[in-house]
Amino acid sequence: MAIKRRSKVNPSFNMSSMTDIVFLLLVFFLVTSTLVNPNALKLLLPKSTNQIAAKPMVSVSIKHYLNNNTFSYHINGNNAPIPLNQIEIMLQQELMEQEEPTVSLHVDKTVPMEQVVNIMNIAKRNQYRIILATAPER
User: N or C: which end of the chain has fewer CB within 10 A?
Assistant: First the structure.
């Protein structure tokens, strides 16, 4: 004895709910991917009270000569300027056997950011921690 149903089941599939889920996932991944930035440089910005947990092992100073728009680089306060292409080699020699190599960066106010980023890139390539030195607030 065969029992027949009065209403037949519709075998079609509604895709509207699936597109909603895909859209929400797309928005979620777009938002979270902009929050993750693996290429960021690690900067330790000291407070103006001059109390820092990490003691710099090497200091790099950049001086800007406004009259001819040139820059000089100095390591550990040495008066003799060092060419930019020699800075990385000098830092590697100074920080070779350090457990947590840290560089303190002292920069004139007039130095363009490009010059600062050059030193920060050297620190990033060699996995050095970098501290951007600031003057205390008065």
Answer: N
